[in-house]
Structures are given as C-alpha cells and as structure tokens.
Amino acid sequence: MPSRARSRRASARAFAVGAAVIAAGALAAIAACSDAGAPAGPGTPGSSIHEYPPVPFGSPPGASSAARSAAAALGRGVNLGNMLEAPTEGAWGVAVTPDIVDQVAAAGFQSVRLPVRWSNHAEANAPFTIDPAFLARVDTVVAALLGRGLTVVLNMHHYRQLDGDALDYGEVAVPAGVVDVRFVRLWEQIATHFRAYPSGLLFELYNEPHGRLDSTAWNVLAARALGAVRRTNPTRVVVIGPTSWNWAGALSALKLPNDAHLVATIHNYAPFAFTHQGAEWVSPRLPTGVTCCDPAQVAEMTGPLKVARPWADAVGYPIFVGEFGAYSTAPTASRVAFNRHMRDSMEVLGMPWHYWEFAAGFGVYDPVARTFRAELLASLLGPPAP
Ligand code: BGC
Questions:
Q1: Span 2-381: which CATH code?
Q2: Is 123 among the residues known to form the active site?
Q3: Is the pLDDT of residue 8 over 80?
Q4: What atom of ligand 1 comes closest to residue 282's alpha carbon?
Q5: Which long-range contacts (CB under 8 A, 24 or more apart) does 2-5 make?
Q6: CA 355 → CA 19, 120, 175, distances in Å?
Q7: Confidence of residue 383 (pLDDT cuts 50, 70, 90)
Q8: Could you tell me the distance, in angstroms and rounded to a whole number, from the CA of residue 160 to the centre of ligand 1?
C-alpha cells in the first residue's frame, strides 16, 4: 500500500482564505442548482446505475494510434491545481486567470492537466444537472488552454463521497445510494458538452480512486463511466488510473475496458517523507528538513516507474505520470534535484508527465510576484544538467 496517509486537507486550506466565504459560496452554488427534495421520476436520466452498463473489460485490445499520439502530445505538462478542484474556484487561494494561461503556454509546457471538482457543482438528485454557470466556466478555461496550443487533460477530482471520504468544508452530502450513478451521469453531461472539442482534449475519469473504490469497484465503475462517455465521444481519448491514489503498485489489479482509445496514468510522490514534509493535509504532519536525493531515495522514486513501464508495455497502452512534485516546505535545492531526477527518469522510460502544480503550495509559478520560480522551472523545462 502507498504511504499516502491523508487527513482532511480542506480545513487547513480553508484557514487561508476565510471559512465563511467558502461556506457561503459553496452552499449557494449547491442551492442554486439542487432540488434535494424532488424524487427522480421514471425515465429521469441517472435514476439507476443500470442505465449505464459497463463497457466489457479485462481484455483490452491495445491502444489506437490516436491514443498513442495523444499521450505523446502530453510531453511535459503541469497541473493547474488548487483552482477548479477547490470546493469553489478561488477558495484555496488561486484561480485560473488569463495571466496563468498565458504563462503556462509561454513557459513551454506542452500540456495541462485540469483538475475539476464537478461534484460540488451539480444537483444532489437525478438528473444531477451540472450548474450551467460552472460548466460554462470550465468550458472557458478549456477553450483558452486549447487556444494556446496546449493539450488538455480534463478530469474529475475530489468527489469525496465516491471514495467514502469525509466532505470538505463547504460541501453538502448527496444520498448514499446515488453517489455512483451521479458520478457516471456527471461524465455523461461533461462528455456531451465537450463532444465537439478537438482531439487535443482528453478526459480523465477520476483522480486517485481510493477508500471505498477498491479495484473491484473501480474497474466496474470506470467501465460504466467510459460507456457514458462513448455515447457521445466514440473516439475521445480517455485516461484511467489505478486505485490506491493512482499508485503504480495497484496497476496489476486495474482491468482496462476493452477500448482502444485509452491512456493509463499513475501518480508518484515517493519518497513521501521528502515530498510531503510539513504538508498540512497529511496526518500526522511529517517533519521538515528532509533533503533529497540519496541513492535510496532515487530508488524509491524510480521504483514505481519501473513497475509502470512493463505493465503498460504488456497491456499495450501508453502511460504517463499525472502528478509528481515536492511541497514548498521542502528545501529548494532538494526540490530542484528531485524534479531533475524525476523528469530524467520518466523521460528515459518514455513517460510524459505533469508536475503538481502551477501556482499554489507546490507552485512553479509565484502568482503574487507574477513570475516563475526560476530554479524550479529550469529543473522541469531547462536544458539537461551539465
Ligand atoms: C491532490 C492535491 C494534493 C496533491 C499532493 C493531489 O492528488 O489532488 O490536492 O495537493 O495530490 O498531495
């Protein structure tokens, strides 16, 4: 099992921005688009999970050339984290501003992973309609990123009830019996909305499934969501990762749907004692002052990659690292060394990557000074070390 022991992170982040503001904003968003008292009538989309049979899974045919090209186009990328996957945009201190879109593109990143907390912006009961204003907001961001020539991985992030986690501050629970079908129905709506977008837009079904999403549950649910996406997007490239927070060690239990337009993903925060030192959302809080990267740490970093590469080759799909990074509480020189090692190791193994993340606690960009943190940027995109 991975060592990603986590506690509720929202409480820590909420302090930064003002709890009252978040609560008011999030509750207003839910109230505006939710009718919690209304029973779903027969025929209401999303009334039953059985409306969404899983795509058969377990004997995937191998990746299409479209899936391979899409994965290659990811290249070197970055997560726009803590923005649209906060309970409401801005609640964790950063938002997707035009400046940020410009800077991502100008720096030379080839792709962006866009984490989005759809679950906090949709009805609690069928048909689980996504707040049109939020959908329009995400649409604006996706269009702006694509317009800058970036490949975009649009995901679903932090649907807390799906993992069986406690809600973040500012969220409202939905009935337990609808959690799964709501997930699939959200994807049906997202896919319908973005159906006409170019192939440079990829969908990633769910960030870091864990908890109640064990491999058995996740394999079926992912296949159901893929079926919902395929109703409107027959060839859209879809990204699927394993359980245990997208841990490479759980790849062996991931049964990909029998579909060619897929790409696999993992996350890699090893060595966790280095990357998450001082992180407020990890309990117990890990001591600071840990440096990187001695040979044992390098082995920890590269171990998951060396599991993922042969797995992907054997199933016949590309794989990329959707998150890696070290928190700002780690010593800067060590963060630089960590990024360099990770980047080189992933690239040697032919794995595209997304650094976690752009402008918040792991940020390669300082949104206040409106400038890149030069050493971090160079560690990711600069010339190879002499
Ligand atoms: C989470 C982030 C978190 C990061 C590092 C991501 O998967 O979504 O909120 O900061 O992991 O822990």
A1: 3.20.20.80
A2: no
A3: no
A4: 12
A5: 2/244, 2/245, 2/247, 2/249, 2/272, 3/270, 3/272, 4/245, 4/247, 4/269, 4/272, 4/282, 5/282, 5/283
A6: 28, 25, 35
A7: confident
A8: 13
Q: Is the pLDDT of residue 173 over 90?
A: yes
If one counts every other C-beta atom within 10 angstroms of the C-beta of residue 111, the result is 26
- Please tell me whether residue 69 adopts helix, strand or coil conformation: helix
Radius of gyration, alpha carbons of the chain = 20
Closest ligand 1 atom number to CA of residue 362: 10
Active-site residue (options: 51, 300, 323, 357): 323
Alpha helices in 148-287 (DSSP H): 160-163, 179-193, 215-230, 243-246, 272-275
User: What's the mean per-residue pLDDT of the chain?
Assistant: 90
7 vs 141, higher pLDDT: 141
> Is residue 323 within 6 Å of ligand 1 at its C-beta?
yes
Map tokens 């990267």 to a residue. Answer: 293
Select from 24, 21, 22, 25 the least CA-distant residue to 10: 22
Residue 142 pLDDT grade (very low, low, confident, very high; cuts 50, 70, 90): very high
The mean pLDDT value for 273-289 works out to 97
Distance of alpha carbon 246 from alpha carbon 253, whole angstroms? 11
Task: Look at residue 43 in the predicted model and tell me its pLDDT.
Answer: 81
Cβ–Cβ under 8 Å, residues 89 and 97:
no
